[in-house]
Write a structure and sequence with these properties.
Helix content: 40-55%
Strand order of the largest sheet: 2-3-7-6
Structural class: alpha+beta
Order of helices and strands: HHHHHHEEEEEEEHHEEHHHH
Mean pLDDT: 94
Largest sheet: 4 strands, antiparallel
Bound molecules: flavin-adenine dinucleotide
Shape: globular
Radius of gyration: 22 Å
Number of helices: 12
Low-confidence stretches: none
């Protein structure tokens, strides 16, 4: 097992840094680094910049216009862009549905959908969860009934991130009610402009409109939008969930946010000294730093194993749990650093270019919302309790 980056990897890292310095728009970087609100255009511009470089599909095979990078290169890339303050790649198109279409979609679907995902022209959302079907995903109830060359879709999805922006949604739908739940699910691509679809916002506790309910009322979907075989959707759904794992630990993001925490703690004054010099507070920062370093090394071990084995293993669950705990701990310390100034929830003041007054120091304005928003990390993508079940069963053999 080799945990050191090779000389080639180091050269690659420099190449990525040079690209970021040249191509990451300063206004977007400012928003990310300061926890301000990003809009659709910010994400699209960054995807377009990546696409122009030929890096739009960092984890895609070259035959589909991807980079063909190794797992280590993907890791370096993800770490560098996150640490530099690039927006995260919205995963639903590039990292989720695209690999499914590549592996199981028809050539016509590959030609129709993949180029527009790569270029950022079409925006996707993920229609997996339903009320009552989150962790227990196999129980989805949204139905798709065959009617000639169409499926008639009825039901409700929920927690659908950024559905308000999406051109397409990929859905798990029930096509057979009579069999074992996993055997009656299909994977359907649905145009969000179809009559019968309505999107209703869910406002989260940080005041953001990030998630939605998506309702389907007699929506007619051409059968050509079925991916793979009817009733084989559970296999594709699991493939999708297991596919994108190199960045699950969020090391780059945690490094960037830890640096922000240190900046804040350097500016806050306690007992006449910068807070970062307070022994108790600095000890807590040090603990996070140690945890992050340990996680980074664990991540490299997993990557090293992946390079040999070529498939991701259940270790990703460890990375997810610890990675989310670290990111949440950083947001907790940030709010504690500024004390009362972390209480006001001021989304208006989180818009770039806001000229009004701030309740306290400007860097404190986004902290309440960031703290509340980051609670989601241990819920979505398989809650941390579910990850613990996976570790118990697949790693510990319990
Ligand atoms: C901000 C956000 C964005 C999301 N975006 C999307 C999206 O774009 N598309 C999408 O399809 N879904 C999305 N989700 C949904 C997400 O995948 C689910 O919330 C998640 O899978 C948990 O399901 P649930 O909410 O139904 O909770 P439940 O499954 O009802 O779980 C409730 C609690 O019970 C625990 N629990 C459940 N089962 C077990 C078990 N077997 N053992 C131990 N503990 C258990 C859970 O850990 C949790 O704490 C999003 C969620 C959030 C919060």
């Amino acid at each position: 097992m080799n945990l050191n980056f090779s000389e080639q990897d180091q050269i690659f890292r420099q190449e990525v840094r040079a690209f970021i310095a040249r191509a990451l728009p300063a206004d977007i970087q400012h928003k990310v680094v300061n926890g301000l609100i990003l809009d659709r255009d910010d994400y699209v511009r960054w995807q377009q910049a990546l696409h122009a470089q030929g890096w739009g599909g960092s984890s895609w095979a070259t035959e589909f216009g991807g980079t063909g990078w190794s797992a280590v290169q993907k890791y370096i890339f993800e770490e560098e862009v996150a640490a530099a303050g690039a927006p995260r790649i919205i995963p639903f198109g590039v990292k989720m549905v695209a690999p499914v279409i590549m592996a199981f979609g028809s050539p016509a679907q590959q030609q129709r959908f993949l180029p527009n995902i790569l270029s950022g022209e079409e925006w996707w959302c993920q229609g997996y969860s339903e009320p009552g079907s989150g962790s227990d995903l196999a129980s989805v109830k949204t139905t798709a009934q065959r009617d000639g060359d169409y499926y008639i879709v009825n039901g409700q999805k929920t927690w659908t991130t950024q559905a308000q922006y999406a051109d397409w949604i990929f859905c798990l739908v029930r096509t057979d009610q009579e069999v074992k739940p996993q055997r009656g699910i299909s994977f359907l691509l649905i145009d969000m402009k179809m009559p019968g679809i309505s999107v209703r916002p869910i406002i989260t506790m940080d005041g953001a409109h990030e998630v939605n309910e998506v309702w389907f009322d007699q929506v007619r979907v051409p059968t050509e939008n079925l991916v793979g075989e009817e009733n084989a959707g559970w296999t594709y759904a699991k493939f999708l969930l297991g596919h994108e794992r190199t960045n699950i630990a969020g090391i780059g993001i945690a490094k960037r946010e830890l640096a922000r925490l240190k900046r804040i703690a350097s500016q806050e004054i306690k007992n006449g000294k910068p807070l970062i010099q307070d022994p108790q507070f600095s000890l807590r920062i040090a603990q996070i730093q140690v945890d992050l370093t340990a996680l980074e090394i664990t991540n490299l071990r997993v990557l090293s194993a992946e390079e040999q084995r070529k498939t991701p293993g259940p270790e990703a669950s460890i990375l997810k749990i610890k990675g989310t705990e670290i990111q949440q701990a950083i947001t907790e310390l940030m709010t504690q650093a500024v004390g009362l100034y972390a209480l006001p929830l001021r989304r208006d003041a989180m818009a770039a270019g806001y000229q009004g007054e701030h309740a306290g120091p400007e860097y404190a304005t986004s902290l309440a919302a960031n703290y509340l928003n980051m609670r989601k990390l241990s819920i979505y993508g398989g809650s941390n309790e579910i990850q613990k079940n996976i570790i118990a069963q697949m790693i510990l053999g319990l």
